[in-house]
Structure formats: C-alpha cells, structure tokens
Amino acid sequence: MARSNRSVVWVGARTLEIQERPIDSPGPNDVLVQVMATGICGSDAHNWVSSSVSRQLILGHESAGVIVEVGADVQDRYVGQRVAVEPGFACLKCEFCLRGNPNTCANLKYCGMDPTDGTLRQYFTCSAHMAIPIPEDMSWEEAGATQPLAIAVQLGRRACLTANKTLAIFGCGPLGLLVIAVANAYGVRKIIVFDIEQARIDFAVQYGADIGILSPKNDASVEALTFAQDFTRQVIREHGLDQGVDVSVEASGAEGCAQMAITILKAGGTCIQAGMGKQLTAVPLFLLTAKELNIKGTVRFTPGCYEDAIDLVSRGKVDLKPLITSTYPLTKANEAFSAQHARKDIKIVIMNQE
Ligand SMILES: [Zn+2]
Ligand SMILES: [Zn+2]
C-alpha cells in the first residue's frame, strides 16, 4: 500500500503549502512514526511570519503518533506502539551531550528549526530513542502537547520546584500555565501569577494558580526599577509572602517583568528566565549580590523530561485538556498558523492524518 506523506511546508512569509514529500525509510536504529497530532506554538508562528527561512521547510516539532516500522536493530520499540516524539537530533558526542545536556548540544538539529525539517507531516522517521512510549488512554491531542509540558518539567528541574516553595510566574501564556500545572503536581505551596490581560489571569487561577495579579503599567513618571521594587514590595506585603518568593519565572519577555522577577525574590531565591522574544537588557544584576540570588536560563528538555511529563498526565497530576482550545486538520494548516499568530487560542493541535 502506497502511503501519502502530506507535509506542511513554509514557502514564504505567512504562506504554507501542503506538499507531498518522500518518506525517509528507517535505518537500523530508527523507527517510522505515523504522526497523529502536532501542537503548534509561538516558535512555529515565528517561522510562519518570517521571510528569511533558508528553504522550503517542513514546520512543526510537538508531535505524537504510532510506530509503523522499526529498524532491524531496534529491540525496545514495536509496530503499533503509541509514542511522543522528542524533536531534537542531538549529536550525543559533544561535551554538553556527554554531560547529560543534549538540550544545549553544540551540534543540535531541531525539528522545524531552520534548516531541519519538522514533524508536521503524515510520516516521520527518527532514532528509536526519540520515540517515547505513551499510555493507551492518553488522547492524541494531549500527546501532541507533551513537548511543551516536557519544557515545563525541565524548567521545574532548573528551578528545583518542590513542596513548600513559593512561586511567582510573570506571563500566563502556555508556558506559564504549564509551569502552574507542574508546580502544583510537585507540591509547591503558593503560586502567584502576573499578566497584563485579566482574561489570561482568570484562566490561570482557574487552572491552579493561587493568586492572580494584573501587572500595573508604569506611565514612565517613576524610574523603572523603583516602580518594580515598589510594586513587588506591595504584593509581598498584601499576600503574606514574608521576605519574598523562593522562585520566580519570567515567561513574558517584558522588561518590567524581568525586573519584578528579581525584586520579588527572597534571599537565596532563583529567577528562571524563560521569556523569549525581545532582548531584556535592564536586569538589575547588582541586586543579586546582597541576597545571593540566582538567575538561570532554561531551554528545551533533558533526558527523562518526556517520561516525567507523560507520567504526570497519565496519573492525572496534570490535565492538559483545558489548554487545548482548537484542533485543525493538517490540510487547514494555514488557518491554524494564522490563529496561532493571533494568539486567541491557548494551545492549537493539528491532526496530521486529517
Ligand atoms: Zn513549541
Ligand atoms: Zn551534542
């Protein structure tokens, strides 16, 4: 039976084409996955609007599906197995890979990241170890949101999110929401979220945040850092946060939030910088010294993050369903990407076989 391999291909700014692409036959250590669902996110939308992708690129990197062929040397995967796909091709040889950090591999190729083709197609071939088994009762829509949850798990590792900690999250987009879910699963004591949109705050509180606060706008009459310090001091006082929070997550990419994420920390606290987008330059580094604060970055995921994410969903510790607000057939990818770019949905999942 001849298989079609309809693929979502960037051909120009805001223009996708559904193209028929060849199926890569699996090597001895590979599996061929029939892709069932692919979540799309801000980085996909970024590619979509770009006019400078180097070639006609298949987009997508958040996928799950069924193994339909296994390479001759693959022992631990089988045809018919349901899997989530890790979209990073790490070299497994460089110093970062050997240290256990393939997320910062010096030679990393990543699905849907120019110039590496992505997973928004009907069939995708990858190393067997990149296909992580998922349980039978996990829906394809949820499985297609495993990758962003794995990113939140990695953030939780970087932040050492554990019981009894207090957490502030700046930005209630998909990452902020997934961090709420992971933090609750790990027994974090109190979660305070900030955003500039009341609707997003309301959703975050419904989804498990303890306190939601509308970020104030600085009309520029007050010096930026003073504004941040005054505001966070007031929040700390009003919400009984003692000396501040243990962990803050900057997931908005806004300059003012980057400052607040530092000034809201108690001594010894950790700020995780996760917001992408424009460069944040006005970070008050001098405040780090006296309180021995930490600032850490986080990117993608490390070994075991997918397994942790799948475990959290399958045991009902994290519910991804409320986040998946729309699904589209692959043939309507253009509509899905423009909806993603308009940011009206929380999470959009494309059904690859439809
Ligand atoms: Zn993504
Ligand atoms: Zn490497």
UniProtKB/TrEMBL annotation:
Pfam families: ADH_N (PF08240), ADH_zinc_N (PF00107). InterPro entries: ADH-like_C, ADH-like_N, ADH_Zn_CS, ER, GroES-like_sf, NAD(P)-bd_dom_sf, SDH-like. PROSITE patterns: ADH_ZINC. The keyword Ion transport does not apply. The chain crosses the membrane at residues 167-188. It comes from the Eukaryota. Residues 12-350 form the Enoyl reductase (ER) domain. Its EC number is 1.1.1.9. Its cofactor is Zn(2+). It catalyses: xylitol + NAD(+) = D-xylulose + NADH + H(+). Pathway: Carbohydrate degradation; L-arabinose degradation via L-arabinitol; D-xylulose 5-phosphate from L-arabinose (fungal route): step 4/5. Keywords: Carbohydrate metabolism, Membrane, Metal-binding, NAD, Oxidoreductase, Transmembrane, Transmembrane helix, Xylose metabolism, Zinc. Binds 1 or 2 Zn(2+) ions per subunit. PANTHER family: SORBITOL DEHYDROGENASE (PTHR43161). Xylitol dehydrogenase which catalyzes the conversion of xylitol to D-xylulose. Xylose is a major component of hemicelluloses such as xylan. Most fungi utilize D-xylose via three enzymatic reactions, xylose reductase (XR), xylitol dehydrogenase (XDH), and xylulokinase, to form xylulose 5-phosphate, which enters pentose phosphate pathway. Belongs to the zinc-containing alcohol dehydrogenase family. This is D-xylulose reductase. It comes from Aspergillus lucknowensis.
